[in-house]
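Final report, closing paragraph on structural work. Over the funding period we assembled a curated collection of sequence-structure pairs, and we close with a single example.
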Amino acid sequence: MFGVTVRDHMMVAHSFRGDVFGPAQRLHGATFVVDATFRGESLDDSGILVDIGRAADELRAVLAELSYRNLDDEPAFAGTNTTSEVLARHVADRLAGTDPCRRTRRGSPGDRDRGHPPRVPRGVGDFRAGAVTAATTVHVVVPEGIDDPRRPSGGNTYDRRLCQALESAGWAVHVSEVAGAWPWAGEKGRDALEGALRAVPDRSLVLVDGLVVSALPEAVVPACRRLRVVVLMHMPVGVQAGREGSLMAECAVLRAASSVVTPSTWCRTWLLASYGLDPARVHVAHPGVDAAAPATGTEDGGALLCVGAVTPGKGHDLLLAALARLADLPWRCACVGALSVAPDFVARQRRTARECGLDDRFLLTGPRTGRELAAAYAEADVLVLASRAETYGMVVTEALARGLPVIAADVGGVPEALGTTADGTRPGLLLPPGDVTALADALRLWLTDPDLRRALRVAARWRRPGLEGWSETADRVGRVLLEVAS
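Its predicted structure, as stored:
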């Protein structure tokens, strides 16, 4: 007896009836991995039991009929609890009803397709479907404080929202927060990370924030030998530091991991070029964004908004220098973000703003989350981002979700986040990074040209429908996890 097994998966929503199912009686999402085994007692003239590509296609087609569906609404399952066993039987029956051996290019029932021989045993009854199993458990290791409202960040938001979206899709998510001043957490951080990884059972799926592993290969590489580790690389250390030791440590971690997930195509390209990783193991899962009501804006466009921790990397000093050249124009810039990450830098910006007479117009508000952050976007006319480095720029899509144009430095994944409308129009302005003159000129143009403001606002409104939510992010990450699990 010979057998060939192919694997695929489907993502569904369903509920169960009966107290035996406990909380699963509520509508929930689930990811089912299906192993379909084609069996036969003999091989064809070429020594092949089944064309594996044709078998995979058949399985994919059957699963596509149910994937992303609410099974409670499917007539085929009316009055039935869609347990793993029931779904296994359904998939097996559907596959048994297909016979690639009799499919030809012309559709005649008896002739073989000479252009692509199916190579399937003639007796379809020889087919047997494997059981459907749910690969729905993932252990997530993140920096301590991802819910701390005093230090919101794109990475923390991504981690938190991804975990929530994975749970909504049916994954059992076990989160471990590790303490430390990441990525340079020292011996204390290493011990905390090693403890978190040691607590995870062998062969488990582990999704770990790159911030806590990039500088600690001595803790991570051994763990990768017994765990299936996927690194979520928000911002490579090499992009920020550029130090040889940092690059070597991060490279060792990423090469040991089973797969790597990045927030942008730009970041993926950077990792491949810098570390020589296998392209098949490096994936992109753009951050999601929530739908929001369009901001109304002001007539003169003078409500400027900058969102991000006040640090050298976010370029607040560049923004302040540019705005100092526009003191003759009416504007007010709210800089929303944590003030505790680089306190000396914050003190310098406050001092400079005071010396320029702008301390009542260049406002360092501190961090805002939830409704307060939403209100800051709603009151703004345009988002300004003078970052020196960004792998994506989640604040860009958060602004676009509200129809706000963006004036930003052309760095990293920012152009990817900004995107274009269907006709190729950018909903904002991209400027050379670090160029104070270019930034000042762009802001002056925005403040003095009502036609430009109107055109960019229209483009931002048209860009909104193309933005994706966190469910799409979770779907992409979930596919990576399933691939690693297989």
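The chain has 16 helices and 15 strands. The chain has three domains: 2-134, 137-288+470-485, 303-466. We thank the funder for supporting this effort.
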